[in-house]
């Protein structure tokens, strides 16, 4: 005997908005679920799905636009040419290794598709890699996470501790 198929609801992302879609039992078509009702005919939505499938819907013409040089310079000046997470000077060279500048989306691009200035920060390569595509409530919690992860990795990168304390100078 076959086991029953698990109920799945589709959570569809349109930019920063998430909407649920499922098959309407009255219309037998796929429709959005808004405020507990199907948008097609107002039939109440009462199913309790066992799992949720996330699907991204975007305009096909929308491409990730490069951040302008003017915007990059403005962000760097506002941050004092330091990483927003660890505070190290960006483009610092030590023993031939360069602490590269990476422009990071605070709300990850994969979810928001938002490259407006308020969502962009300058960070070092290591911090950007540690933050990756994770969501954070605010900058403080993102900074705490990144610094904790750095500490787990001995807390140093290029001989410098977070917030610019040079351990090689001692």
Q: Which key features would you list for this structure?
A:
two-stranded antiparallel ribbon; single chain; 5-stranded mixed sheet; 2 domains; elongated; alpha+beta; 170 residues
Give a short synopsis of this structure:
With 170 residues, the chain is an alpha+beta fold.
What features would you describe in this structure?
The protein is an alpha+beta fold and 170 residues long. It contains 4 helices and 9 strands, in the order βββββαβββαβαα. The chain has a 5-stranded mixed beta sheet, with no helix packed on it. Strands 6-7 form a two-stranded antiparallel ribbon. A two-stranded antiparallel sheet has the order 8-9. The protein is elongated, with a radius of gyration of 22 Å.
Given as residue ranges, the uncertain stretches (5+ residues, pLDDT < 50) are 166-170
pLDDT averaged over residues: 76
How many domains? The number is: 2
Shape: elongated
> What integer value in Å does the Rg equal?
22 Å
The helix/strand series, from N terminus to C terminus, equals: EEEEEHEEEHEHH
The count of DSSP E runs of length 2 or more, i.e. the number of strands, is: 9
Number of helices, where a helix is a run of at least 4 consecutive DSSP H or I residues: 4
The main sheet orders its strands as 4-3-2-1-5
Percentage of residues in helical conformation: 10-25%
The structural class is alpha+beta
* Separation of the first and last Cα atoms: 72 Å
- Proportion of residues in β-strands: 15-25%
The oligomerization state is single chain
Main beta sheet strand tally, sense and closure: 5 strands, mixed
């Amino acid at each position: 005997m076959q086991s029953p198929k698990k109920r799945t609801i589709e959570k569809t992302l349109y930019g920063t908005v998430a909407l649920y879609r499922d098959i309407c039992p009255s219309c037998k078509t796929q429709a959005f679920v808004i405020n507990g009702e199907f948008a097609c005919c107002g039939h109440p939505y009462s199913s309790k799905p066992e799992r949720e499938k996330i699907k991204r819907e975007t305009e096909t013409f929308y491409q990730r636009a490069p951040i302008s040089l003017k915007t990059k310079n403005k962000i760097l000046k506002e941050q004092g040419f330091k990483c927003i997470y660890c505070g190290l000077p960006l483009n610092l060279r030590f023993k031939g290794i360069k602490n590269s500048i990476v422009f990071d989306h605070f709300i990850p691009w994969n979810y928001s598709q938002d490259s407006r200035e308020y969502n962009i920060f300058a960070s070092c390569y290591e911090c950007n890699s540690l933050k990756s595509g994770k969501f954070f409530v605010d900058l403080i919690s993102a900074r705490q996470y990144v610094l904790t992860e750095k500490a787990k990795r001995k807390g140093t990168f290029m001989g410098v501790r977070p917030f610019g304390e040079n351990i090689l100078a001692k």
